[in-house]
User: Fold this.
Amino acid sequence: MDKITRHDLKTDKFAQEVGHTVEFLSEHRRQTILYGGAAAVVLALAVGGYFFLRHQKDVRQAELRQATEIYDATVGPAPPDNPYLKTFPTQAEKDLAVQKAFLDLASKRAGTDEGAVARYYAGIIAADQGRILEAEKAFQEVAQTGDQNYSSLAKYSLAQIYQSQGKAAQSEQLLRSLMEKPTLMVSKEQATIALARVLAPGKPAEARKLLEPLRTERSAVSRAALTALAEIK
Assistant:
């Protein structure tokens, strides 16, 4: 519909169109009330549903922030100038609290973005603490159920685990898939450099072929590519 200007509001044509509309509404008053009321109910439900879902997401994000605050907490006495800073007496107590926070959130919010993020964090913590099988299981779950960004990050982490375990074929498969479908979390260049490192021991020529074009990319990428090239024997 064309935009109605102030000039149009003063014309006889506009007044005539308004008159036709009033006549139509008068003749179809019952239907207008019936369908207009139904539309209003649907609209109210939709708006209510939107704000309910938005509220639920806000709640989940607040829970995730609380878990990450534990993850970022320091070990030692709280500084006197900042009593609100979260601290733990020992590293062991912090590790237990962090693990519980993310595992509880991952279980409670399974099937949501926040649940996937919490599960990924739990995998990172498990890997840092040497619980590789537990980390592998967490990354596999996020790779299968998370959104494309966290799924790609989980696949990248899985590829690193497989590389460390000598499972080069599995690592290569994951990294090639990430090269084909890069995301905000894992760029094509990042996946390419990681793949070159996996290939370097057995296929050094192919690894160099992957890295050479990246030498002239933006500085961070070129530095990483040059470092990887220097590692190839």
Remarks:
- DSSP finds eleven helices and two strands in the chain.
- Residues 86-146 form one domain.
